[in-house]
Structure formats: structure tokens, C-alpha cells
Structure to design on (999 residues):
């Protein structure tokens, strides 16, 4: 063995597993955060519905709080959180 | 004036009135005699009504039984009548008792105990006293007074009369107090004094010829003084003589006589003498001598005639004092003569001219003659004007000549010297009133007239060579004249713009631009601080000029400043201590402030910061943070939020890696844990965008990577990871024939080197296909390994550049004096593509700003012509844009229906809501 790796500094970029690049509610990109937050990441997470649409958690919470029926704003199906994430 | 026998009739009753109106309790004691005649002669202030109902001039008999209850004396102790109040047997009116009261009185303005006269009746009004006042000083504030009231006392009355010659009848009583110091029941009264009345003393008459005789004596004395001879008479006698003459109303005559004598002397002796002198210098000397002699004589004469001056002249407004008369005569007969005057003034001007040319002249002579002119009050009329004219002429020619002959610094020193000389002149012999005009003249002729040429000819040179003392002098001279500083400031400003432009504009000098800028700024600041007195105008001018020239070349300075900061913050920059670095960063921030396109700076700074953080080349976290806070202070939180996000990511990654290491150690698997994996997990939006690259990793690395991915996604659901091999770096342990080494390499370099574990030789194509690294990247990587300073590989054929036919071989004899060799510098190096991409991104982002600005303006104006819109945009946009760019953005907005062209006027736009 002429060369052997001793240490390795690697770099990775994380992205949301979203099927869209923008939140359907606030129209801000998922790479960013909802209009009320400043720091993307765990402070402003994404949530996925069973209908497979995803939103900023803060956005969908606000939406659901304002609606009588708990439906997805995109497809009007009943809103429920998808439990098994990829 | 009551006569002695009248006093017998006086009753001894008193009325004491307390005056409530003044702040002091003034005790007014009035004695009302039974004898109404004397009462009526005395003016009385209106007395308050007493309890008894009496007012004014009223008599109140003090009841002997209870004197202390007398209403008027309340508040004062009133001694009860002494036993001797029984009538004294020696007096013929035994029925009237003697009382003795004592009480305190405040002092008024009178410094001495004295009974006030009726004229001062607001204090005291003794109406009449049938007794005696006895005054004793108790302390400085009050007097104790006693008065003894008894029935008419002849001896006392007589005594009173004896002293009453000068004053009015009542106050005279006060004077008697001294005699009765031994106050008591029966004071011993001195022997009776007789009043003797004498006639007025007759004034002595003077002899008829007194006036003539005395004047003769005085005249002799005056002439003796004028001819510098001995005075025969005693000076005191002369003085007395003058006094006497004044007393006998001969003052006017005496004054006239004196004037005649002096005038004669001046006209007959002094003036012709002066006229006789021909030589100019001697003339001045003689003039001075005459003047001095005249002054001396006048002083002596005045001393003798002082009494005249005081008693007669002072009270007669129409005639001047003896001294002034002397001056007037001198003025009239000597200097008033055209010839003498001209010769004097011209002589003076000649002397001054000589002195200006460097000769030594008799300053005391000048001073004394100029003082003479001042004293004679003709300084302004005959001298000052001509002097200033001459000065003006001299310096006009001198200024013109020297501006041609001299270099500017030399000229400035000359001007300073001249100004100093002229103010010395004022100090030494000129009248101080001339100072302003004189200095002003010199300033005008030597500075104001040449402002433009001094600045044009010399300023640049002075600034270039950093000649601080000369610049300081320049400033101080220019600050004297109107517009001087404004002009200086203007030229200074254009100098900075010109010089600065040469620093900025030339792409050849890009490497040293920022350092040059910093040095230039330091130099200018130093000049402003040390030479221009930190004048606000100049400070602002420097700022304005820097801002102007730095933005002459768009974008590049911002980029270079960002890179300069990067170089300073990078690891291995050991030239500066922390404080020095801090100071340097502050200076850079000043430079940064001038730049309009701050987005360019941000983009490049971000790119470099990312590399520093990811490749671990940041010199100090503190310095990074301090720079960040400076930027935040300068541009606000929005500007730095992404940069802060980067630091946050690094912190989060550190936590994740710690957790991951724990995870690995718990994980019992066959994986080779000798590799120490650290992953920086980045949040997309914060970091510069990196192109996604796929490379072939060795199996164990791939597996390792997968483990981390699982670990990470387990912690953060809903995410995916995108690996960024371009930014990875490794530490390799290498074995050479000369021993073991540690190589710090980029991931790509590591991938290439790892290929050589199994074989000795590999061709370019083999390496490329095995690693799957993109062409440009692999070439750079191979070049760094085979053609750089540390050659781990050997290339055949040898050469600087890598070509596709090259073959590579492991370099067994690799030698380096260091154990740990860094070969990954290429990772930090900015490639041209990177630079271009960053620039592109900035321009791209700017489009949004332009769009936003256009929409903002159109929304406000609704309708606007193209020209006006463009000019408004230039006002709003902080970075430089070309009109074509703007046109493109406008077109794009029209396409997107934000605005529309006016149908009738195609050069006009309408906002579409």
C-alpha cells in the first residue's frame, strides 16, 4: 500500500425531499423557509401529506387553522400527515 | 433757634414712633415741648396715631408711674424712672421729674454717632430735646443711646448753642453728647461756653502789577525750559504762582500767554531749524530730536502749569489741555508744513523699503517718528494710506517675479517669511491699527493673486512627495485668504480622483490595487490630519473623491477587496498579529464603504469564505466573526444573514460529526474505521451554488459515505444529501523509499493517488476513466501532483502542462523536508470559470433588483417616458448598469405584462396594474 487514507473531510448539501421547489402556500422556495422564519432547516421543517403534497409546516398549520375542513390546499383532499417518509 | 431762657419752659415729654414702613424698626423720637413755639418750627413726618389718639406733633406726657407701658416704645426696654426722679433741688421747677430711658437703636448710614439733622428726618426727628442724648457705641452694629429728660437745663442749652454755629439748630444738639459721656442721673456738665461772633475774614488784595510780575517770572521759566537753561526760580514757587494767578481769576490770560510763548518758540526756532537740514536720513534724525525735545519741554511746562490745567482748562471745554495745545502747535508749525511732512513720510517709506530689502535700519527712529505721527493724529492721513500703497506695489511685483522664479515650496516659505516680517513691523514700529490692512495687502498680493498657479504648479508635487511641513504651511497660508481653502480643497479633491483613478483603472495593477488603495488612503488621511487640521471640508472631500474614483471601474475593485480580505483571513497569513489584522480589516471596511456595487463584494466574499470554512483554511474564527460583524454593522443584517448561516452550518456539522463518531464506534461492523470521516453538511441557500459532480469513489469510501447518509437521514427525515466531491479533502499516509509522509490532498488528488496503490504506471486516459473526474479538473489535479513543487507522481514526457498522451508514474524517491506535505493548494485557487460564474451570478441577481426598481418607479408614476425612467433608475440603483441592460429589463417586464408601451407614443411606458 503506497497510499492510505487517514482522514477524509467530505462535503454534502442537504435538500428537502420535495416534489416541488416552492411551497404551494407561501410560494417561497423550499430551500428557504416560510415567510415567518429566517433559518431553514429544523427550525422551519417541511411536512408531507398523504396526498403527497408538501408544505412548510408553519404554512400548512396556518392554513388548516383558518379552514373549517382539514383539506390540502393543492388538491382539496383530506389532509393527513404522511407517516412513512422515504 | 431757641435761646437759653426759653428752654426753661420746655416740658419733658416724648413721643416715640415706631416706623413700621422700613425694614428696620426705626425708632423716631420726638419730643414735644410744652412751649408750642419751638414745636411749630420743626417739620415732622406724619406720625402714626398712637393708642392715645394723638398724632403728628403731639405731646405725650410720660406717666411717671408706668413708663414702660408707653405705647410708642413697645419692644424696647424702657427703664423705669430711677429713684432720683424726684425733683433735683437745685432746679427751680421741681415738679418735673427726670426720667432716664435707654434703648437700642440700629445704625443707619451715619458712620458716627450723631443726631440727624431735620433734613434727614426720615431717620430721626428729634423735635426737641429737653434732655441730653448720650451715645455710646456698643459694637459696630448698634449704639446704645440714652437720653435724659429733665426739666429745662440752662447749662445744657447754653452748651448746645455754643456748637451750633455751622449746622441747623436741632442737629447741633447731637454735638453735645461728647460732653456728657458720664451719663447718669446728674451728669456733670462742663463750664458754660460763650458764643462769640466774628466778622468775615477779608480777602487779601493783590498788588496791581502782580499779574505782570508773576507772568514775567513764569515766562522766564518757560523760555529757560525751551532753551534748555537753568530755571532760576524754585519750581514750587512757580507752581504756587500759577495757583495764585488762577485763584485771582487770571487763568484765561495766563493760558493765552503761555500759548503765545510756546507758539513763538515752535514757529521761530524749531521749524526753521528743521527746514535747514538737507540729507534725508539726518533730516529724520533731526525731526526725531526736535520732537523729543518738544515733548520734554511740554512735559516740564505742563508740570509747572498743572494747576492751570486742572482748575481752568478742565472746566473750559472749548480749549485743549496744555499738552494737546503743544501737540497742536507742533502739528501746525512743523509737521503741518508741506515740505517737512513730505520729507518725513518719504523718509519713513524709504527706510521701510530698505528694511524690506534686507538692510538693517534704525527701528527705534522709525518707531519714534511713527509714534509722533500717531500722537499728532495725522498717522492715518499722511502716512498709513501711502504706506499701504507702497506695500501693495512692492508685493505685487515681488509676487509676480517670485512665482516665476521660485519653486512652490520655496515660494511658500518666502511668503511666510514676509508675513512674519510684516507683523514684526507692526509689532516694532507701526501703529497697531495698520496691522489688518497691511497683512491683508501682503496676503492678497502674495497669496490670493496666485492661488491658481500655486495649486496648479505645486500641489501635486507636494502631495506626491508627501511633503507634510510644506503642505501644512500651504494650508495655513491659504486659510488666511478668502476662497483659499475652497480652492485648495477642490484641487486636493481632483488630485485624489486623478491619482486614485490610475490605481484603479489599470488591469495590470490589479494584484496590488487594494494595498495601493489602502496606502493611498492612509497617506491622504495623514495629510488631512496632520496638515489640514482635520478640516471637515477636507475629510469629506477625501471621502467623496475616493467614492468617485473607486467606482470609476465597476465591480473589479469590489471583487479585489473581497479577495484581499480572503488572503488576509486565510491560514498561513502569519505576517499580522491579531490587532494588526483587526486594524487592517477596519481600513478595508472604510474602502468597502466607498464601493457602490456591494453585491459583487458579497458574492466573492461568500465564495472565498465557503472555501476557507470547508477546506479548513480559515486562520481564526475570531477574525472571521469580527469581519462578519463589521459587515453587518455596515450593511445590515440582510447582507450578512447568509454568511451567518454558513457559520451556523459549520457548527451544526460539528455536532453531527461528534454524534456520528459515537455512532460508528457503537456500530459493530467490518468497516475499516481507520478512516476519520468528517462531513460538512450545508444548507443549500446559504452557500454558493456548486455544480453537481459525479466521481468514482473507492469502495470503502462509498460504503463509509452510505453509513453517514443513513445516519444523517435517520436524524433528519424528509431530506436528501447531495455529495460535493470538489470540496472534499483528505489526509493520505504515503510510503516512499525515503520514509513515510503525510500528504494533505484534495479528494480528487486522493482518488488519483489511490489508483497507484496497485500499479506503477498509469496513462492519462486510464486515470480519467477510473476516477470519472471531469476533464479540466483532472488535468489540474494531475498537474498539481506531477508538475508542482511536491511531485508525488512523475510524468513522461516531462513538461509543465498535462496532455492527453501523458503517462504517469509513482515517484518512489519523493523527498521533502517536511513530514506533512500540503498539495491541496489548488483547491483554494480560484479558477477563471469560478470567477466568471460568480460574476455571472451577481449580474443575474442584479436583474431582479433592476426589475424591482423599474416596477417600483412605474407603480409610483403610472406613466413615464423612457428617458425619465432611466434617469430615475440610475438614481435608485447602487451599482453600475449599462443603458442596454436597462432596456433589456424593460423589454422583459413588458413581455411579462408589468408595463406596456403607450399606444400613441412608443417612447412612453404605462404601468399595468
Amino acid at each position: 500500500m503506497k497510499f492510505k487514507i487517514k482522514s477524509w473531510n467530505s462535503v454534502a448539501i442537504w435538500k428537502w425531499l420535495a416534489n416541488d421547489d416552492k411551497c404551494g402556500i407561501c410560494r417561497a422556495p423550499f430551500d428557504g423557509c416560510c415567510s415567518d422564519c429566517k433559518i431553514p432547516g429544523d427550525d422551519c421543517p417541511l411536512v408531507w401529506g398523504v396526498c403527497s403534497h408538501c408544505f412548510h409546516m408553519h404554512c400548512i398549520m396556518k392554513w388548516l387553522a383558518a379552514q373549517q375542513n382539514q383539506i390540502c390546499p393543492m388538491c382539496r383532499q383530506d389532509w393527513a400527515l404522511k407517516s412513512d417518509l422515504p | 433757634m431757641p435761646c437759653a431762657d426759653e428752654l426753661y419752659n420746655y416740658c419733658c415729654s416724648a413721643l416715640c414712633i415706631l416706623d413700621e414702613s422700613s425694614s428696620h424698626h426705626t425708632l423716631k423720637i420726638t419730643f414735644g415741648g410744652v412751649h408750642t413755639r419751638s414745636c411749630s418750627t420743626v417739620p415732622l413726618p406724619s406720625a402714626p396715631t398712637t393708642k392715645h389718639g394723638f398724632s403728628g406733633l403731639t405731646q405725650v406726657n410720660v406717666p411717671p408711674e408706668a413708663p414702660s407701658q408707653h405705647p410708642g416704645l413697645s419692644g424696647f426696654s424702657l427703664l423705669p424712672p430711677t429713684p432720683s426722679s424726684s425733683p433735683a433741688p437745685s432746679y427751680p421747677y421741681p415738679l418735673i421729674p427726670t426720667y432716664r430711658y435707654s434703648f437700642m437703636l440700629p445704625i443707619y448710614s451715619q458712620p458716627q454717632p450723631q443726631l440727624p439733622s431735620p433734613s434727614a428726618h426720615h431717620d430721626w426727628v428729634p423735635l426737641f430735646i429737653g434732655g441730653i442724648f448720650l451715645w455710646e457705641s456698643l459694637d459696630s452694629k448698634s449704639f446704645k443711646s440714652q437720653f435724659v429728660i429733665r426739666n429745662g437745663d440752662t447749662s445744657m442749652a447754653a452748651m448746645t448753642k455754643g456748637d451750633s454755629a455751622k449746622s441747623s439748630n436741632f442737629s447741633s444738639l447731637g454735638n453735645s453728647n461728647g460732653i456728657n459721656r458720664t451719663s447718669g442721673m446728674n451728669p456733670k456738665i462742663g463750664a458754660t461756653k460763650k458764643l462769640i461772633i466774628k466778622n468775615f475774614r477779608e480777602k487779601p488784595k493783590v498788588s496791581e502789577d502782580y499779574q505782570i510780575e508773576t507772568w514775567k517770572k513764569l515766562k522766564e521759566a518757560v523760555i529757560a525750559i525751551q532753551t534748555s537753561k537753568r530755571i532760576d526760580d524754585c519750581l514750587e514757587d512757580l507752581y504756587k504762582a500759577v495757583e495764585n494767578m488762577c485763584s485771582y481769576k487770571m487763568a484765561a490770560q495766563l493760558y493765552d500767554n503761555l500759548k503765545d510763548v510756546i507758539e513763538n518758540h515752535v514757529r521761530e526756532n524749531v521749524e526753521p531749524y528743521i527746514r535747514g537740514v538737507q540729507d534725508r536720513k539726518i533730516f529724520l534724525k533731526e525731526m526725531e530730536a526736535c520732537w523729543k525735545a518738544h515733548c520734554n519741554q511740554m512735559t516740564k511746562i505742563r508740570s509747572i502749569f498743572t494747576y492751570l490745567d486742572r482748575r481752568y482748562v478742565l472746566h473750559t471745554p472749548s480749549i485743549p489741555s496744555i499738552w494737546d495745545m503743544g501737540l497742536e502747535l507742533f502739528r501746525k508749525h512743523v509737521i503741518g508744513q508741506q515740505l517737512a511732512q513730505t520729507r518725513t513720510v518719504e523718509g519713513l517709506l524709504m527706510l521701510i523699503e530698505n528694511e524690506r530689502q534686507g538692510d538693517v535700519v534704525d527701528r527705534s527712529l522709525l518707531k519714534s517718528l511713527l509714534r509722533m505721527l500717531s500722537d499728532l493724529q495725522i498717522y492715518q492721513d499722511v502716512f498709513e494710506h501711502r504706506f499701504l500703497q507702497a506695500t501693495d506695489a512692492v508685493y505685487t511685483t515681488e509676487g509676480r517675479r517670485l512665482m516665476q522664479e521660485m519653486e512652490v515650496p520655496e515660494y511658500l516659505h518666502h511668503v511666510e517669511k514676509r508675513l512674519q516680517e510684516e507683523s514684526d513691523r507692526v509689532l516694532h514700529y507701526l501703529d497697531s491699527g495698520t496691522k489688518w490692512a497691511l497683512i491683508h495687502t501682503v496676503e492678497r498680493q502674495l497669496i490670493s493673486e496666485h492661488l491658481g498657479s500655486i495649486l496648479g504648479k505645486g500641489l501635486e508635487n507636494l502631495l506626491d512627495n508627501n511633503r507634510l511641513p510644506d503642505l501644512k504651511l500651504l494650508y495655513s497660508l491659504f486659510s488666511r485668504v478668502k476662497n483659499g481653502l475652497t480652492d485648495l480643497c477642490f484641487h486636493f479633491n481632483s488630485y485624489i480622483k486623478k491619482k486614485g483613478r490610475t490605481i484603479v483603472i489599470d488591469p495590470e495593477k490589479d494584484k496590488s490595487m487594494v494595498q495601493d488603495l489602502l496606502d493611498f488612503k492612509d497617506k491622504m488621511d495623514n495629510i488631512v490630519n496632520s496638515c489640514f487640521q482635520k478640516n471637515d471640508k477636507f475629510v469629506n472631500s477625501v471621502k467623496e473623491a475616493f467614492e468617485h474614483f473607486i467606482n470609476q471601474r465597476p465591480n473589479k475593485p469590489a471583487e479585489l477587496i473581497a479577495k484581499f480580505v480572503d488572503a488576509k483571513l486565510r491560514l498561513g497569513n502569519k505576517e499580522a498579529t491579531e490587532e494588526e489584522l483587526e486594524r487592517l480589516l477596519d481600513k478595508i471596511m472604510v474602502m468597502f464603504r466607498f464601493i457602490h456595487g456591494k453585491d459583487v463584494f458579497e458574492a466573492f466574499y461568500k465564495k472565498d469564505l465557503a472555501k476557507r470554512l470547508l477546506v479548513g483554511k480559515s486562520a481564526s474564527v475570531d477574525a472571521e466573526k469580527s469581519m462578519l460583524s463589521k459587515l453587518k454593522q455596515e450593511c445590515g443584517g440582510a447582507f450578512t444573514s447568509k454568511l451567518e448561516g454558513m457559520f451556523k452550518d459549520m457548527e451544526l456539522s460539528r455536532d453531527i460529526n461528534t454524534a456520528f463518531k459515537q455512532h460508528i464506534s457503537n456500530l459493530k461492523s467490518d468497516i475499516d474505521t481507520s478512516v476519520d470521516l468528517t462531513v460538512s453538511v450545508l444548507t443549500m441557500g446559504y452557500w454558493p451554488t456548486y455544480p453537481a459532480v459525479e466521481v468514482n469513489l473507492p469502495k470503502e469510501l462509498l460504503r463509509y459515505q452510505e453509513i453517514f447518509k443513513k445516519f444523517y437521514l435517520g436524524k433528519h427525515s424528509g431530506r436528501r444529501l447531495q455529495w460535493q466531491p470538489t470540496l472534499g479533502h483528505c489526509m493520505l499516509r504515503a510510503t516512499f523509499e525515503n520514509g513515510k509522509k503525510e500528504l494533505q490532498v484534495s479528494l480528487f488528488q486522493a482518488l488519483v493517488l489511490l489508483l497507484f496503490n496497485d500499479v506503477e504506471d498509469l496513462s492519462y486516459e486510464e486515470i480519467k476513466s477510473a476516477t470519472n473526474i471531469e476533464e479540466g479538473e483532472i488535468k489540474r489535479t494531475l498537474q498539481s501532483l506531477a508538475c508542482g513543487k511536491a511531485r508525488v507522481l512523475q510524468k513522461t514526457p516531462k513538461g509543465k502542462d498535462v496532455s492527453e498522451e501523458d503517462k504517469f508514474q509513482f515517484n518512489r524517491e519523493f523527498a521533502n523536508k517536511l513530514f506533512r506535505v500540503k498539495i491541496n493548494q489548488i483547491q483554494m485557487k480560484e479558477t477563471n470559470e469560478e470567477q466568471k460564474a460568480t460574476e455571472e451570478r451577481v449580474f443575474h441577481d442584479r436583474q431582479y433588483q433592476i426589475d424591482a426598481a423599474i416596477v417600483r418607479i412605474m407603480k409610483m408614476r403610472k406613466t413615464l417616458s423612457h428617458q425619465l425612467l432611466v434617469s430615475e433608475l440610475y438614481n435608485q440603483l447602487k451599482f453600475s448598469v449599462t443603458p442596454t441592460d436597462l432596456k433589456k429589463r424593460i423589454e422583459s417586464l413588458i413581455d411579462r405584462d408589468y408595463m406596456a408601451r403607450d399606444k400613441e407614443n412608443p417612447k412612453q411606458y404605462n404601468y399595468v396594474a
In short: Chain A touches chain B through 30 residues (CB under 8 Å).
